[in-house]
Write a structure and sequence with these properties.
Elements: H1 5-38, H2 54-90, H3 101-128, H4 131-135, H5 142-150, H6 161-186, E1 191-194, E2 197-202, E3 207-211, H7 218-226, E4 230-232, E5 237-241, H8 244-256
Antiparallel strand pairs: 1-2, 2-3, 3-5, 4-5
Coiled coil: 164-191
Pfam family, one: DUF3560
Protein name: DUF3560 domain-containing protein
Length: 259
């Protein structure tokens, strides 16, 4: 059960791009089909009410309308998957299953603390009107001095208190995530079998994985999905993010197999 964060990310991007291309091609094909069908109807030709061809004509026009509709639906899907691929590529969020998550979070924490100290020092400089000291600070530039010493739309000089408060909250949040990741790395891995169901904590992938001897019944599959587990063909297991509740749910499902 190898796990590679970057490979999994690339698979998601490529899958979204391929779906975008496929839907765009299908949309174009449906559009051309509907356009060709519509060309058989003379320009401005009305439905001949009472004529023997009325029913056939109405059905034909309805098929054209539906084909155009399907084409537009495919175009919307293509746009959705194209945006999804772009979103994944541009996502800078740090995920816990990223093998470099701890290093990235530590770097982010250091940057946030530097900004916090800068804002505090900058406010002192603004209060004393000490421009020379301000410009010696990291991030202290002429343009920022002008903005802070002039004031915002509420005529507040310096960095507003809420900015320090919000940044402080982010510092505490990142510190908590780092602590959780450190605990996770030192945690004893769960690897047990109950009623033939293997419950395995894949800490590298940050997933609790359930491995069945045979394909689970529809009822069990429904129970798995209701508890947040999803089938992963690449891992060959039903899985969800590791948590105490995930383990509790897995054990309950395993125990139900004896019924």
């Amino acid at each position: 059960m190898k796990h590679d964060f970057e490979q999994r990310r690339e698979r998601r991007i490529n899958n979204a791009k391929n779906r975008a291309i496929k839907n765009e091609q299908e949309a174009e094909c449906l559009y051309q089909t509907a356009k060709k069908q519509a060309s058989f109807i003379p320009m401005g030709q009305p439905i001949l009410i009472g004529h023997h061809s009325e029913k056939r004509d109405r059905n034909f026009r309805e098929r054209i309308h539906n084909t155009f509709g399907k084409s537009f639906e495919k175009s919307e899907k293509a746009e959705y998957y194209a945006e999804k691929a772009e979103s994944i590529e541009n996502n800078t969020a740090i995920f816990s299953d990223d093998p470099n998550a701890l290093a990235k979070l530590t770097k982010q924490l250091t940057d946030l603390k530097e900004i916090q100290e800068f804002m505090k020092a900058a406010n002192k400089c603004i209060k004393k009107q000490d421009k020379e000291a301000f410009l010696k600070l990291n991030y202290g530039i002429e343009k920022l001095w002008e903005q802070l010493s002039t004031g915002d739309y509420l005529r507040r000089l310096r960095f507003a208190p809420f900015k320090l408060t919000n940044n402080g909250s982010n510092i505490r949040r990142i510190e908590q995530r780092i602590e959780q990741l450190k605990k996770q790395q030192t945690k004893v891995t769960t690897d047990k079998t109950i009623n033939g169901l293997c419950i395995f904590e894949n800490t590298e992938a940050n997933r609790l994985q359930l491995i069945f001897e045979d394909k689970p019944s529809p009822e069990i599959r429904q129970q798995l999905k209701a508890n947040g587990f999803r089938w992963s063909p690449t891992e060959g297991a039903w899985q969800r993010h590791i948590s105490n509740y995930a383990l509790y749910s897995a054990e309950r499902i395993a125990e139900s197999l004896s019924n």
